[in-house]
Amino acid sequence: MTPMTAIPSSDILDRFTAIVGEKNAVRDLAEMAPRLVENRGLYRGASPLLLKPGSVEEVAAILKLASETGTPIVPQTGNTGLVGGQTPRADGTDIILSLERMNRIRDIDPVANIIVADAGCILDDIHKAASSVERMFPLSLGSQGSCRIGGNLATNAGGTAVLAYGNMRQLCLGLEVVLPTGEIWNGLRRLKKDNTGYDLRDLFIGSEGTLGVITGAVLKLFPKPLGHQVAFAGLASTEDALKLFEMASNLCGTALTGFELMPRIGVEFTARHIPGVRDPLGQPHDWYALIDISTSDSAETADTMMQSLLERGFEAGLVEDAVIASSEAQRQALWHMRESMSDAQKPEGGSIKHDVSVPVSKIPEFMTTAEKAVLAAIPGARICAFGHLGDGNIHYNISQPVGADKAEFLGRWRDMNEIVHGIVLSLGGSISAEHGIGQLKRDELAAIRPGIEMELMHRIKHAFDPAGIMNPGKVLVG
Amino acid sequence: MTPMTAIPSSDILDRFTAIVGEKNAVRDLAEMAPRLVENRGLYRGASPLLLKPGSVEEVAAILKLASETGTPIVPQTGNTGLVGGQTPRADGTDIILSLERMNRIRDIDPVANIIVADAGCILDDIHKAASSVERMFPLSLGSQGSCRIGGNLATNAGGTAVLAYGNMRQLCLGLEVVLPTGEIWNGLRRLKKDNTGYDLRDLFIGSEGTLGVITGAVLKLFPKPLGHQVAFAGLASTEDALKLFEMASNLCGTALTGFELMPRIGVEFTARHIPGVRDPLGQPHDWYALIDISTSDSAETADTMMQSLLERGFEAGLVEDAVIASSEAQRQALWHMRESMSDAQKPEGGSIKHDVSVPVSKIPEFMTTAEKAVLAAIPGARICAFGHLGDGNIHYNISQPVGADKAEFLGRWRDMNEIVHGIVLSLGGSISAEHGIGQLKRDELAAIRPGIEMELMHRIKHAFDPAGIMNPGKVLVG
């Protein structure tokens, strides 16, 4: 199961090159450089060869040769992953298989509400294709201009629309996958219901390229909502935010399409560093909720629902102040603030990040406990914890104290992980809510999960990839 | 991987008995008899022993002993499955493991919208528990008074609420499973988002007891809708039904909680045989739609939405006639007609049944093509094809011609399967939309699916159940 660790011979590299042709095989280091580094610079790898196959048959030929020669393969699409899952290892043994040339929309059917796409399609292009037939594809991420469907599926991507529409797992009906042995599994089904044997689709989704290469998918489309309204509310505490979320869930049901929590410091960071962003409320508040409502029947329903929610929130003493967007531009501006929250931390120095989830009802307890523990460990640390309250998913980011040494602060990354993840686990939470495991959390996963669970994953890995060539060193150890 | 085929020795039976105690181990044939037969009499099995463990530890001890001694185990909960998955094989080698004593609700949390239940809980008891805290659990089946959660999960049960809430897979957050080797996997997570490794949960859901025994689950609850309205509409064709469904989807979004299609003959059968059922419309129509709308904000919204939908349907010439229920009793009466459609066929003689799905947009083509082929093969056959149009899922049932010989008609079961399933597959459909594979469709599955897909399922089976003791002969051959 352990693949070779030697760099593939030039003979082997030539055989891989022959599959895709010289012009789709990159050996030049400068050209390859952007593919060797993870987005935030956390991981840098090396690779002797980058392959850009143009068809599922070429992908199959690559994997067949890889299995035969024991050559490790790293699949890569938009290279926007945040856990190093798409980055080759540093020893230079991994060949990169990029799906970027496979970016065709194979079919779109607005009656059946389905789009069939190559794995290399950029998420934004799927949005545009859906919009052109008066439909929408709900997956919405900060990186949607460059991330690609294959990576979205391999990592079971989340984002801001999960509350109403679910993760990528819930948005996918069928898959086409090339197995590590080079066989093609055509599971491109378009069915809402299909109980015929083991759920292979959901096994590939979220497996981060370690069980096979996803080359195509059938995705669900939805009618465009007729009504859309966004509000921004100032709140006194995370307890009040949770109560307001419950109120919104009960009132709006599935029309509640977003409920994002932000701290005061996050609003300050964005107002300070992101052009065009300003605090829309007159006075500061400790916490903020961005509330998004979409309705299918009419534009008025969304307005009425939002008005009604905020009125009830005021009456119950949960909302201190609030604004409702009065134009599409204002709606976009409010979302822009939320989506810039991560970027706005960069000018403030080092930031130690976590992508965690807890049961929704435990968010206040998590926030209080974690803040106390983090400040005890690093007095003056600035906690910018924001995220998808409705999903129980918080991006628990910690900015360095003002004036602290950045490198020294970032040296505490593991300490902070231990503190924050310890609290998350004590509350029954997850150390990776939506970003996945990759390299970043691989060893930690093995440490916190029961032995039998890791053992089952290893058995599945071995059953699908006996030669151990698929993205080795990611998700699972060894 | 092949388990023993000899009947377990009395020594081995005694060791199993010792685990649960004499009073929870049944060897008496009369007492065991109802557990040996499938609901519709399609399968009759034999078993030397029925075990009723009272805890997950006892289940673990049973499976450990089974793996050690190579004794086949059939898990059983409500025994309402329709494909023979829960029925022991006829050779008398399989021990039945019933979860009926494990029927405790472990926790219920209306703030987090979660219920944690033993696998032996009856579905109706979950409904009642949810209702007692002003929540609802959406899974809704004809057999809900006797089916149990473990079986619902093992078969990824569907039912009438799938359109808005999804199958059992979408309603489950976490599982507790005893593996064939006797190890306990505690995956009882309560998280909406958790991207930490392979999706074991979805692998167990729908695996029909062949990979392990589900002993507990974390299920999602939902706010009770404030508004609920049901209408019954007479239509000219399945094409019009599809157009009306599209109109309803666009207008109501996720407030559309049911869209059931019924043929004239089905309405006649229920009016003739089911006490209290009558055709609510003055004139006969070729097809009918039962439309169900639930709204979260107010009762009026559901009424307004339904009125608006039917008005638009009339204007577009899709609806010939319609009634809207004017009381809860009338709403229940309309659903009762739909839910009795299967029972109403029994007094009409033999019925050959199919549980198929096609892409929703292909329902009219499927209906027309199948009707022509079935009537060519059996002139006078009465096609009572009804079901979940919004899911693309039709229960394509064929009642015998009036006056035909029942046994002779039922002898055509395989012929009819071949005809109907052939058309389903040519349209990219599924031969088992919601009932599963069990024994009934095991050989057919192996025949229609690509070799690599069956091979992957066998590898997973072997990885999880090396001794081959878990519900052998179900889903997979050998």
TrEMBL record, chains A, B:
Pfam families: FAD-oxidase_C (PF02913), FAD_binding_4 (PF01565)
GO BP: respiratory electron transport chain
Domain of life: Bacteria
Domain FAD-binding PCMH-type positions: 43-224
Keywords: FAD, Flavoprotein
GO molecular function, one term: FAD binding
Cofactor or coenzyme needed: FAD
Listed PROSITE patterns: FAD_PCMH
InterPro entries attached to this UniProt entry: FAD-bd_oxidored_4_C, FAD-bd_PCMH, FAD-bd_PCMH-like_sf, FAD-bd_PCMH_sub1, FAD-bd_PCMH_sub2, FAD-linked_Oxase-like_C, FAD-oxidored/transferase_4, Oxid_FAD_bind_N
Family membership: Belongs to the FAD-binding oxidoreductase/transferase type 4 family.
Name of this protein: FAD dependent oxidoreductase
Biological source species: Agrobacterium fabrum (strain C58 / ATCC 33970) (Agrobacterium tumefaciens (strain C58))
Lineage of source species: Bacteria, Pseudomonadati, Pseudomonadota, Alphaproteobacteria, Hyphomicrobiales
